[in-house]
Amino acid sequence: MTTTAHLSYELLCEIFQILCDEPISLHISEDTSLFDKFPWAVGLVCQRWRLSNPRLWTFFILDHLEDGTFSDRYIVEMNRRTVMHVERSSQLVPLTIMIEACQPRRQSTWRILLSLMHRWKAAVLKLHAPSTVDGLRKCRGKMPILESLEVWDRLPSDLCIDAFESTPRLVQANLLRWDSGFGLLPLSQLKKILDGVT
Known about the structure:
Blueprint: H1 9-19, E1 24-25, H2 40-43, H3 47-51, E2 59-62, H4 72-89, E3 95-99, H5 107-114, E4 120-127, H6 130-137, E5 148-153, E6 172-176, E7 192-195
Parallel strand pairs: 1-2, 2-3, 3-4, 4-5, 5-6, 6-7
Helix pairs in contact: 4-5, 5-6
């Protein structure tokens, strides 16, 4: 007699979550390079797998591209995919965001991610352009669940980043080349703080 083991859908979701160990690359527009990776591999099976596990769609990275040039068509497509992935993640699930660089031509994608700051639980930000900081400043006080922050500050020393002063759940901060000063963080509540400036 042959028996077939059936995994429950809940257990499958946990397995999928473990396999989703890389961020979703918002800047990559070539689908075929991603089909063998999670969560796209799950999403290609069926709609239920794609839409009923929003945690699979909560880790995003916006990285730089080597040539740094973006066509209008590319920007539109990147924004479309960003919105699509965010919709799959559900409004109730916290997000992890990694911004490696944000060139002026990609500010529209950056604004989409900023509009979700109330869902940011962890953020890694490599800040290169003053316009990136302008967007952050407008979001001061709008990060109620942010717990972990890593900032690479490559901006002029006179450009103050005060967006994180009012983050009630921030407990861990890693600051690398941070010129804005520790005073612009909620120091009394931080349990772990690392300073990459030596």
